[in-house]
Specification:
The complex is a heterotetramer, with 2 copies of chain A and 2 copies of chain B. By secondary structure, chain A is an alpha+beta fold. Chain A is 17% helix and 34% strand. The two termini of chain A are 37 Å apart. By secondary structure, chain B is α+β, with helices and mostly antiparallel strands. In chain B, a hairpin with a 4-residue loop joins strand 15 and strand 16. In chain B, helix 7 crosses helix 8. The chains are: A alpha+beta, B alpha+beta. Strand 2 of chain A pairs parallel with strand 1 of chain C.
């Protein structure tokens, strides 16, 4: 069983509404379970610049066995657990990937933030980059591929660590 | 061949029989209680008849309603599945009176095996090994010693009038017998006012080994080797395998022949199971089940047969197709009983199935009446599915079982699936080193 | 079974209406379940900038194969079709069974409307019956079982034909 | 043994390989396009790597991304499944360069069999029967007559420079040859400016029979009998069975040995299939597939083997466990390819699966990556599941297939299931009397 909640709140929303939001979402989740729903989607506008989108979904899809499977042993180490930690991470990284300023990886490989160990990083948070400037390198098939900035902008976040593996489409950094 | 068969059962075993009917071109009639109107067996059968309210006593055990259901649908034969009316001699007698064919043995054979004393006497006469005992009361210590020595220690001294463990004393060796005999007698005297005691062989770490037999009702019978069902909780089997990790080919052939010969001699018709305790290379008869067992699929996998089809063929007078010389076991099969029960207390967990996904792929068989959206009613037993895996050898079957358990999804109710994940981690399960006490002890120390 | 609810509410709705929202969604979900609906879509305008869109959908349970199976042939005449004509009839007869005045069959058997062929019927529509009066006979296991009226009343409808098979719980006649 | 395997595929075949990995205690890495992020193979694998956008060319066919996925996950070997990169010699060469083990034959063998002419020459040299032909141009009628008589009528005269059916003339008997030869020449001259023609044996009603072979890469090889895949639509197989209704044990042993010997001689490693046209008791080589076939489960059922496990064992250098003398076929297996396609036009029908319920019970295997709520993406092929049934004989398998098809529920998209219901009603299917033209003709007359 998976339970996914995605929340987007407007800028103006004061922090003391978080509590109310969470309660509302909790109520929706309870409703979902009680009525065997798979999905509730609510769009709620409270006023200008104050909106709440909630989507709460519960999988009807194949899910992990309800009880935690015991630690695997040879010769059957690979017991199927449809939801892998790897998946969870991927899901968590959805947000930056959706960011309009995100630069995503055009290939699978290993990301490097500098040309070689000890060299300065190509970019740092706060740097202004020009279009075409190398922002990092992805090593794939023993080849170093320079990843250029697709446009000029300011580096808001760097989302990968030096030497970390990246999938196709993984967000690398956010340019604003 | 029959044109129409009524299945006097529900759940996965009703499906099992309906599937066999479909494959044989026989129309099927499901019967159901009002609580089972949406059940899978009702959906899959060609016709269905509501036979009573939720209570099993008033529906699946209602002989008049089931016979009437045959009459109004024109069903010529009844398959009883297991449980419910499957070993009810009076029901079978009633069917005989109504000229409806019972897919199973005669009422006489059911009655004979339903009575423990008659069953044991019959088996002894047929050469089937039973727990050795003193054939009635033992008058004195000298007689007790003689009996005990003839069967070998340990022995247990029991009050003839006894029950509930009172008046029962264990003698592990010859030197314990004096004390055991006298204290059993005095305890029996005090408890029941009768100091007569008898002596039986005592089994310390037996396995539950059962032999699948099949007779054609005309004096021919075969055996299909054994199943090991030692893993039990409160006398309920939870995990069964074939062949047994403890039985070799020679032992299998020997006990199998003994059982098949006995069945042939009896003129038994259809599927039956002779259950034994097994210890130190010896078999001790417990009882005979005169029906299809829950765990029959492990035998089907290993012997490559369709037992329900054979049952129907024999009941229809077409004879059985199995011949002993062609029944060669191969590979290894394991069944897990998936119950709607909440661990660790095995509390029944009826409810609505929010998601159901059966495991697939090579060597996996799932017998289940579940479907997504189905509500498991609280009135019947908690077995909701049987997962059977087959592999070339026991390690392959165990690995496949773990893989398949990982694919099984039953959301909305608690199931016993996690028990099997945990069992597969146990070295004793991996090596097959377990007795009928193993699971209870393991549950005690793991909860 | 899947169930999806999508709600959009207008601007004006104040935050303390969360409770009302949740209740409304719950009511829709209950309605869906109660009436075996697959989908309800509601658009409600309370006033300017105050609108509510709800879509609640419940998915299908396993049903017969979508395409009609071709006519069966031996040796496999009994292809599984989860919804049988027999079932459909049973479903259709639910209505009289729910009628508060329905007398239902206490057993499985064959219903007869008169004591023997040629005899007058036990009751006819419009007849007034007294409590305990035989209204029909059900033959089961070669025994004729007289079915008595559970109370006095007037026969409004007779729901079985003479000689027709009846299940347990099948409505026999309606008494008012 | 490998610790981690990457599966360079998707759908049911990726699941098939992941299951084998799980049963062998090997970690699995799924790769997927962005369109397949929720796919079953991604859910079931231990790890997953997104390798590209929906287009297969940019994801499942992206050699750099797949090799990089191995590198970042530490996978030591790649199983290619079927399709995609499974017969791409350049890919295998690249893996060899990167010291990643390809679970399949060498790039040299893939290249050899990927070229039709080299493949045919190789097979002829290895004693595998091919379609007899004139070995190049035939100068005159006398030579033509000699060639035609040596191979037997009917023969077809074809323009060496030809194509598209032009310059092709059939000679059913010897007295047609004169006309056929001269008209083929003049037509060839007119169409291609070259009147050279050659002659080939003409097959009128062949079956598609393929032999499953398996080599250990060290000169030992076995065969696992044949599959009959004659039921095809536009050269796509839809229904496969083993054994073929047209092949007897002696013929099987003979062609099997020929194929196994050829494979052994080649030093071939892993699973392969040698495809033939079969007519009047003779086999004519078409091509060799140097990979696992979609329809491999029918062979697994009949020979009681796990071909993917054997592939992995051989690739890991542990050798194959199969030995020819132990490979004894039993029973009968049939596979139906369930495609998400709308009949009668077989138009692809991607979409969301509103309900999925797999058939169960004895003798039924379902290989499918579907689950309730899954959306079939429109980018890939339409195979959504394989239903494989096994029975003691062909009639039992057919009856079981009908039963299992009736249990299969796939709601939300159109599937080819109704096609199989209809086929099972056909006397020719029931008797096994079909050729490679049967299905196309039947579809024409039934739509």
């Amino acid at each position: 069983m998976q339970l996914a909640a995605k929340i987007r709140t407007g800028d103006r929303m004061s922090k003391n509404n978080h509590q109310a939001d969470v309660e509302f979402i909790a109520a929706l989740a309870a409703l979902l379970r009680e009525h065997d729903l798979t999905e509730v989607e609510v769009r709620r506008e409270y006023g200008e610049d104050d909106a709440l989108d909630v989507r709460v979904a519960r999988g009807v899809m194949p899910t992990a066995p309800v009880m935690a499977a015991p630690a695997p042993l040879p010769p059957a180490a690979a017991s199927a657990a449809p939801h892998q930690p790897a998946k969870a991470e991927a899901a968590a990284s959805d947000d930056p990937a959706q960011h309009p300023g995100a630069i995503t990886s055009p290939m699978v490989g290993t990301a490097y933030l500098q040309a070689e160990p000890g060299s300065p990083a190509f970019v740092q948070v706060g740097d202004t980059v020009t279009e075409g400037q190398t922002v990092l390198i992805i090593e794939a098939m023993k080849t170093m591929n320079q990843i250029p900035a697709p446009r000029a902008g300011k580096v808001k976040r760097i989302l990968v660590e030096d030497g970390s593996p990246v999938e196709f489409g993984a967000p690398l950094l956010i340019l604003e | 061949m029959f044109k129409k068969i009524l299945i006097a059962n529900r759940g996965e075993i009703a499906l099992r029989v309906i599937r066999a009917c479909q494959e044989m071109g026989i129309a099927s009639v499901a019967v159901h209680s009002t609580a089972d109107a949406d059940a899978m067996h009702v959906r899959m059968a060609d016709e269905s008849v509501c036979i009573g309210p939720p209570s099993g006593t008033l529906s699946y055990l209602s002989v008049p309603n089931i016979i009437s259901a045959c009459e109004i649908t024109g069903a010529e034969a009844i398959h009883p599945g297991y449980g419910f009316l499957s070993e009810n001699a009076a029901f079978v007698q009633a069917l005989e009176d109504h000229e409806i064919t019972f897919i199973g043995p005669s009422s006489a054979h059911i009655r004979m095996m339903g009575d423990k004393i008659t069953a044991k006497e019959t088996m002894i006469n047929l050469g089937v090994p039973c727990v050795p005992g003193s054939d009635g009361g033992v008058p004195d210590l000298a007689a007790a010693r003689k009996v005990a020595e003839s069967m070998g220690y340990p022995v247990i001294v029991k009050a003839t009038a006894g029950g509930g463990g009172r008046g029962m004393k264990l003698a592990k060796t010859a030197k314990d017998l004096d004390t055991a005999f006298s204290s059993a007698r005095s305890e029996a005297k005090a408890a029941f006012g009768n100091d007569e005691v008898y002596i039986e062989k005592y089994l310390q770490k037996p396995r539950h080994i059962e032999v699948q037999v099949f007779g054609d009702g005309k004096g021919r019978a075969v055996h299909l080797g054994e199943r090991d069902c030692s893993l039990q909780r409160r006398h309920q089997k939870v995990f069964e395998e074939a062949p047994s990790p403890a039985i070799d080919a020679e032992t299998r052939a020997r006990i199998g022949k003994t059982c098949a010969d006995a069945i042939a001699e009896m003129g038994y018709s259809g599927a039956g199971t002779i259950e034994f305790l097994y210890e130190d290379g010896e078999f001790y008869f417990i009882e005979m089940n005169t029906r299809l067992q829950v765990e029959h699929p492990v035998t089907e996998a290993v012997y490559d047969v369709d037992l329900v089809r054979e049952q129907i063929l024999v009941a229809a007078g077409e004879g059985m197709t199995m011949q002993q010389e062609n029944l060669l076991p191969r590979g290894h099969a394991i069944e897990c009983r998936i119950n709607a029960e909440k661990l660790p207390d095995f509390r029944p967990s009826p409810g609505r199935i929010a998601a159901f996904h059966a495991p697939g792929g090579l060597g996996v068989r799932m017998d289940s009446a579940l479907y997504q959206g189905y509500s498991i009613p609280p009135y019947y037993d908690s077995l909701i599915g049987k997962l059977i895996v087959f592999g070339q050898d026991r390690p392959t079957a165990l690995a496949r079982l773990r893989r398949a358990l990982g694919e099984l999804i039953v959301d909305g109710v608690d199931t016993t699936t996690p028990l099997f994940h945990a069992l597969l981690d146990e070295p004793d399960i991996q090596t097959g080193n377990y007795t009928i006490h193993w699971l209870e002890k393991w549950l005690e120390s793991n909860t």
